Amino acid sequence: xxxxxxxxxxxxxxxxxxxxxxMAKLSAQGVQVVVAIFTNGSEGYPHPKMRDQIVELRxxxxxxxxxxLGIARRIAFDIPDMGLVNTKETLxxxxxxxxxxxxEAIFTHGPVDRxxxxxxxxxxxxxATWHAGQPVATELGSPWKTPHLxxxxxTEGLALPSIVFDVSKTAHKRPEALATQxxxxxxxxxxxxxxxxxxxxxxxxxxxxxxxxxxxxxxELSDFPPIS
Length: 228
Ligand SMILES: [Zn+2]
Hints:
By secondary structure, the chain is of the alpha/beta class. It is built from seven helices and seven strands; from the N terminus they run E-H-E-H-E-H-E-H-E-E-H-H-H-E. Strands 3-2-1-4-5-7-6 form a seven-stranded mixed β-sheet, sandwiched between helices.
């Protein structure tokens, strides 16, 4: 994780929180952490009366999450929830984001998922990582080859090597980040107070915590130090 810039793709506001401990740790070390979220979370309203406010609510919750995790910049593609499709236009926006950020590592969803937006996020981000490094569509920025591509979720049953990253000192940032996602807590089954309580407990307990990342076949394994 010896990076200066990373880019994390997520389908919905809050998907990226799966790797909260890593983002918090890296940002505290001075790494520029950029998150790109494809959809606006517009279907994530637990009560019909929240329907008209949900996009605005989720925008505010994303900003609060950025504060907690030290996310330097968030790119919102603002595509309707449950409506993400691998179109040429969205692929180009994705290529443009990669070329702007110029990350050394991209983190995205794996392919094994039942949510259509998650599968589309996987398809778009993996393809865009490759296209971004090719001398094509250069009105979208200078080509940028991202050396490392990882999956942070949706990898069940895949035969891929993985790395385990120690997040013992920042694992409590995950419940703290989930506490900011107030509109989603019916779905999560926990309240803001419960998340904050958990964050405090974890912070004080001094336990060992890790986050796992799967190394895709787009990553050159020779870039990693030898296993001793
Ligand atoms: Zn999602």
